[in-house]
Specification:
Helix content: 25-40%
Number of helices: 5
Largest sheet: 4 strands, antiparallel
Radius of gyration: 29 Å
Number of strands: 10
Order of helices and strands: HHHEEEHHEEEEEEE
Low-confidence stretches: none
Oligomer: single chain
Strand order of the largest sheet: 5-6-7-8
Shape: elongated
Length: 187
């Protein structure tokens, strides 16, 4: 009877055993944490991961260029005429029939609806890098009123689709979403 009650009572040895274990666990965690933490991306990489753009001041027919992941991204408020011209293009007339829109499946056709913002077709967001050799095309230039690459003469329409010249693909549409009616998030 005496032996049974002594076994259930915590002893000073039990307390020291638990306290030593707790201090050891904290010590291991403090030692391992810097190694685990160094695997996280640094602040400069996180800053490039996404970019928020206030579009409230972009009037119809105007564009802004922002930098995202080191590349220029055009946000354009297209005119009604530009939208109509982009819609009127037949897929059979396009050099690249794929939308190249990161927000859609990889095989989505290059219609204007698949290149512009869903439900806000006047807003157009595109990585402004020529798909030929990576030059920066000039906006609202060329025979289709879209973008013209002066390096080798590639001509893109108002939906950023290659229409003439050596570029093999449409310019890329990055992942983006509308946070509000006046703010978009790229990336």
């Amino acid at each position: 009877m005496l032996a049974h009650s002594a076994a259930t009572e915590p002893t000073r040895r039990d307390f020291l055993f638990i306290a030593t274990g707790a201090v050891g666990a904290v010590g291991v965690a403090a030692t391992v944490w810097p190694f685990i933490n160094q695997m996280n991306p640094d602040a400069s990489a996180l800053a490039l991961a996404s970019s928020e753009v206030d579009i409230s001041s972009i009037k119809e027919g105007e564009s802004v260029t922002v930098k995202w992941r080191g590349k220029p991204v055009v946000v354009r408020n297209r005119t009604a005429k530009e939208v109509e011209e982009a819609k009127a293009a037949a897929l059979s007339d396009l050099k690249d029939p794929i939308a190249r829109n990161a927000n859609l499946p990889a095989d989505a056709p290059a219609t204007d609806a698949n290149r512009a913002a869903e439900g806000k077709e006047n807003w157009f967001v595109m990585v402004n890098v020529c798909t030929h050799l990576g030059c920066i095309p000039l906006g609202q230039e060329g025979s289709f009123g879209g973008w013209f690459c002066p390096c080798h003469g590639s001509v893109y329409d108002t939906a950023g689709r290659i229409r003439q010249g050596p570029a093999p693909e449409n310019m890329a549409i990055p992942v983006y979403s509308f946070m509000t009616d006046t703010k978009i998030k790229i990336g």
